[in-house]
């Protein structure tokens, strides 16, 4: 049995159904989008079985892209949770057959409060469709299941329709990356857009020495600082140099190397510094990668040290 061919066939069948649906969009998407955007309430998604599982995903996608939404199971609604639906809310009911008993039972109660109902089903003459104010057709010609029975192509199309609705709403609201990140502060995008350099900056117990410091004493400070670097300041506390472990290794190769030499004699003088601690951490990482350095030295306009940021600090914070 060639399983790769089976996988290929399933993907092609489902892709074909999506293509067919994309060429025959007959529902009033403009009115649906306007209805949701202008609503003062929430968009409540409901359904049972596979439709319910897909509906939960659709609700999650909507909620993360600017539409206040949650999933409500019809059975739970019949046993008290119907009160979770407010008069300003909108209901999106999903049932491929349009006849799911648990869902049909709550429809009269929804309509009794004049709550707008958007239906996703295969048949516009189904009970769900007849109760609805707006009908989205999710019929497919063929399920990917070899018996043409298990929800496969139909659930894929339903999920895709939910994604399409979410994208339409994002476009209508001019939803941007910054908006998405605000709903995902713990995600990688949220970290990129919200964590600033100052949030990660090391400001205390920094490895700093004066320009008169002997190399052997600077090495002790370097070891205690655990950054592989020593910052050198002049008499007015301005950053004038940096001694890295690389500088130290290169100095060790010289015939006249001495631990009693001044740290300034083997250091890198006039190092690159940055005076904007409001930089985003993601921008700081970009700077580190562009200049092929491991440490950012942050100063004020007078080159007085404010803090240090090592590339490891960014990695540990999940900045990529």
From TrEMBL:
Q: Which organism is it from?
A: Aliarcobacter trophiarum LMG 25534
Query: Family, per the entry?
Result: Belongs to the SIS family. GutQ/KpsF subfamily.
Identify the domain of life: Bacteria
Q: Name one GO molecular function term.
A: metal ion binding
| Swiss-Prot/TrEMBL keywords | CBS domain, Isomerase, Metal-binding, Repeat, Zinc
This protein is called D-arabinose 5-phosphate isomerase
Alphabetized NCBIfam families for the sequence: kpsF (TIGR00393)
What positions does the domain SIS occupy?
32-175
Task: For this entry, list what GO says about its biological process.
Answer: carbohydrate derivative metabolic process; carbohydrate metabolic process
Domain CBS intervals: 201-259, 266-320
Site (Catalytically relevant) found at 50, 102, 143, 184
Gene3D superfamilies with a match to the protein in the record: CBS-domain, Glucose-6-phosphate isomerase like protein, domain 1
Per the record's keyword annotation, is Flavoprotein included, yes or no? Answer: no
Q: Which residues participate in Zn(2+) binding?
A: 73
Tell me if Metal-binding is a UniProt keyword of this record: yes
